[in-house]
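To the structural biology subgroup,

Please find below the input and predicted structure for Bifunctional oligoribonuclease/PAP phosphatase NrnA, which we are adding to the shared reference set this quarter. The sequence is reproduced verbatim from the submission form. If anyone notices a discrepancy with their own records, reply to this email rather than editing the shared folder directly, so we keep one authoritative version.
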Amino acid sequence: MTELPLSPLLKRENFQKLVDSWKGKKLAVCGHLRPDGDCIGSQVAFCRFLLAKGIEAAAIKTDPIPRNLESFVGDTPYIDVKDFDPAGWEMVAVDCADEIRVGKALREKLPTTLFNVDHHISNPGYAEHNLIMAHSCATAEILSELFLSLGHHPDEVTANALYVGIATDTGQFRFPSTSTRTFEICCNLCEFGANPAKVATFLYEQETMGRMQLLQSFLSTLKLSLDGKVCTGCILDGEYERTGTSNEDSEGFVDYARAIEGVRVGVFLEENKGKIKGSLRCKDPIFRVDTIAKQFDGGGHACAAGFRVESTIEEFYPKLVRILEDHLQNSQVAG
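Predicted structure (tokenized):
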């Protein structure tokens, strides 16, 4: 294994001392609503790390584990939030940009957070101990660096989970946050059993016909605005029911909008009973889509962010375009 020294920030956090202080505690490893690969991968990896250190731990889920990620959980203990008895447990949050993102049901059971590890630039640091590294490509990358640098040897399930988190949050190593260190860490994970071919097969080559029909519907809605600088695609109310799919099947759709030549910002809008979930993606961090999301009480990364509003797409879309127009003009002036 290639030696990876801790980055200066991680040294300052004195992670080993923190882990030692958790001995005798019961730690609930929590992720965000509608979990993605980085969320599940980080939950699995951190939970297994804690168990290996003799600390009682379990991962807590509010929403179901996405179908294409189930194979990477292994024998990691997962407890559904509705079955979770919080007595004696403390929360560890992974990949959660703010404390609300764990979900209302879990937040009511565990109102405070002991440790918060994340890579979202908008994370305010809401826990007793916080490790926020906005330059990292994924929370799984932060955890990988911690584990490997401290001499922890992850088992095969943990190595694959960490690799899944990194691979998905970098868009298969295509996004600007991908660095030489990202590849160094992944190389180390492969030495511990991470299997890139297996990961790619389960993530991207197990599609259902329903998801293909949903994608077809989404692509038919793509619309360019602001002289081709913005592309927006939608999932209209009722489309999941029509295609026999769920919201996990639209994961990654926003990247089709972002990928069009000349587009600065790609937008995904999902309509559901008077509410909209929005996702924003850009190719260049100069466009800081997290600041757009913040105007709707959302957040995220410079190149990837999200928000929720109560509205319909018909009502909301013109407002969003006006905000995007001002934002792009200001971004270009600043750049």
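Summary notes: The two ends are 41 Å apart (CA to CA). The chain has two domains: 8-204, 209-334.

Regards,
Lab coordination
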